[in-house]
Amino acid sequence: MIFVCVGSRNYQFNRLFAKLDELWEEGIIQEDIFAQIGASSYKPKHFPYKDFISEEEFNKKINEAHIVISHGASGSIMKALNAKKKVIAVTRLEKYGEHINNHQIQINEAFASNKYVLSVYNMEDLGAAIKAYYEGTADIVQWENTNPMSVLNLIDNFIKENWYSVKSL
């Protein structure tokens, strides 16, 4: 199963759910999907969803999942990585009204540059990321660090090393 989670903030992520329906129709997605769609107004056609779920149900879905597709929230990504799941981190973008700013770019890039997740910035790349996991060609490494500060250090180091490129976003 693929578990999709987009958090509880009051921002839609319609592009993601429309793209998942498209990938389902094209036969690229080859397993069941369950989605937590948050404040999105787009209602998926090909898979079950709930607007919001409890922490208990969230943890259950993470554990059941083969792949977790998460928005760029470090907490959701870390829960999936700590559960040893394959993660695709999809960036919410301000220009589509998906968040207040583009901070998820830095979060996703920090995880992706260390090869812990596949990061998707353009929805047209989501199918390729899913295929990479199906075909076993995803260039990732297993997350092993259980130190709660490690994610903060990972993001902090990435921003320090890439300050000029991050600043221009």
The CATH homologous superfamily is termed Glycogen Phosphorylase B
**Could you say what the CATH topology is called?**
Rossmann fold
β-strand amount: 5-15%
Unreliable residue runs: none
Give the CATH architecture: 3-Layer(aba) Sandwich
- What is the arithmetic mean of pLDDT? 89
**Number of DSSP helical runs:** 7
> What is the gyration radius calculated from CA atoms?
15 Å
- Count up the domains: 1
Give the overall silhouette. Answer: globular
Strand order of the biggest β-sheet: 3-2-1-4-5-6
Quaternary structure: single chain
Structure characterization notes:
The protein is of the alpha/beta class. It has a single domain (2-167), classed as Rossmann fold (3-Layer(aba) Sandwich), CATH 3.40.50. 41% of the residues lie in helices and 14% in strands. It has seven helices and six strands; from the N terminus they run βαββαβαβαβααα. The protein has a six-stranded parallel beta sheet with strand order 3-2-1-4-5-6, with helices on both faces. α4 packs across α6 (150-161).
Task: Tell me the layout of helices and strands.
Layout: E1 2-5, H1 14-25, E2 33-36, E3 49-50, H2 55-64, E4 67-71, H3 74-82, E5 86-90, H4 103-113, E6 118-120, H5 126-135, H6 150-161, H7 163-167
Parallel strand pairs: 1-2, 1-4, 2-3, 4-5, 5-6
Helix pairs in contact: 4-6
Q: Features of this protein?
A:
41% helix; 169 residues; globular; alpha/beta; 6-stranded parallel β-sheet; 6 strands; Rossmann fold
Brief account:
With 169 residues, the protein is of the alpha/beta class. 41% of the residues lie in helices and 14% in strands.
